[in-house]
Design a protein that fits this description.
Layout: H1 4-12, H2 31-39, E1 44-49, E2 52-56, E3 59-60, E4 71-75, E5 81-86, E6 94-96, H3 97-103, H4 108-126, E7 138-140, E8 145-147, E9 154-155, E10 160-169, E11 172-177, E12 189-192, H5 199-211, E13 215-226, E14 231-240, E15 254-259, H6 260-267, H7 283-292
Parallel strand pairs: 1-5, 10-14
Antiparallel strand pairs: 1-2, 2-3, 2-6, 4-5, 7-8, 8-9, 10-11, 10-12, 11-15, 13-14
The structure holds zinc ion.
């Protein structure tokens, strides 16, 4: 496991990590406080259309916030508020969040802010009605709660944890690929956690289901928000207890052991069969890098 400094350096280079806004959780439930922040001439609003945002001159395009249903993201270093709102019409000069993260042109904290905005806006779009009684709900706490006036239920934004694991057997490493991925792309095995599981149990279940490999000791490496729409990737390295792979073809097109040398060639995009790994902004890249080092 990396030491604290190592873990910090690691998370800084991952896409959507490194947010720096003060989320002001103690104040955002006060509608007057939020209204005052919104009226500040220096307050800014970021509009997203799905996972797209307008980029002008290499920066996120911001507007003055209005009165409509907008979400409070937090206060910047100067104490000015930043809000987010959904735009239903396509935005001019729009870029999608994945491409922005891969290119790495925006500051890490801006990408983290966009991830926060994207996940929250998506949640509001899909949770306008109470899951308990079916009546319409209202936004509260600057967007961190929806309240049902009919049955008094409160609903909170969700985050969906996903385990992602590189499994190691001596000097070889288990990677798989799904049929829908780019040609030649291999990555760490991953899956959503289920209720009642620990992180380790979820990772062991996923690897056994998808590749027939039993996993022993597991080490946590790092986590990464993944706003498509609201995942939290939990990056792990595990020790294999057997070597014979049995692929679940409904999940994976292929899974195999790779040598350290082969993975280095994949990092350098020099693999003789044209095989590759996810880009550096993705946690799969980071845990694989950690596993082979
Ligand atoms: Zn209700």
């Amino acid at each position: 496991m990396p030491n604290d400094a190592g873990a910090l350096a690691l998370s800084r280079s991952l896409g959507f990590c490194g947010g720096s806004l003060d989320r002001a959780a103690a104040f955002r439930g006060d509608v007057h406080w939020v209204a005052t922040r919104r009226a500040d001439p220096e307050a800014r609003l970021i509009r997203l259309n799905g996972d797209k945002v307008r980029i002008l001159d290499g920066r996120i395009h911001c507007e003055q916030p209005g009165e409509d249903d907008i979400i409070f993201l937090g206060l910047d270093d100067h104490g000015h508020a930043i809000f987010a709102g959904e735009e239903t019409a396509p935005l001019p000069d729009a870029r999608d969040l994945r491409s922005l993260a891969i290119e790495g042109q925006l500051p890490a904290r801006d990408l983290a802010m966009l991830a926060q905005a994207r996940s929250l806006l998506h949640w509001h779009q899909r949770h306008r009605f109470c899951a308990n009684c079916g009546h319409q709900t209202e936004m509260r706490d600057g967007g961190y709660r929806r309240h049902c006036a009919h049955c008094t239920a409160d609903h909170f934004p969700r985050t969906d944890p996903v385990v992602i694991i590189v499994v190691r057997n001596a000097n070889s490493f288990l990677l798989g690929r799904q049929a829908s991925w780019a040609k030649g792309r291999y990555s760490a095995l991953a899956g959503f956690m289920e209720p009642g599981e620990t992180i380790e149990e979820a990772a062991r279940r996923e690897v056994l289901e998808e590749a027939g490999i039993r996993v022993g000791a597991i080490t946590y490496v790092a986590s990464q928000p993944w706003p498509f729409p609201a995942s939290l990737m939990l990056g792990l390295i595990g020790q294999a207890l057997n070597r014979d792979i049995v692929i679940d073809k409904t999940e994976l097109e292929d899974a195999r052991w790779f040598s350290r040398a082969e993975i280095r060639l994949m990092f350098e995009e020099r693999h003789p069969d044209g095989l590759g790994v996810p880009p550096p902004m993705a946690i799969a890249h980071k845990i694989l890098e950690t596993a082979i080092t």
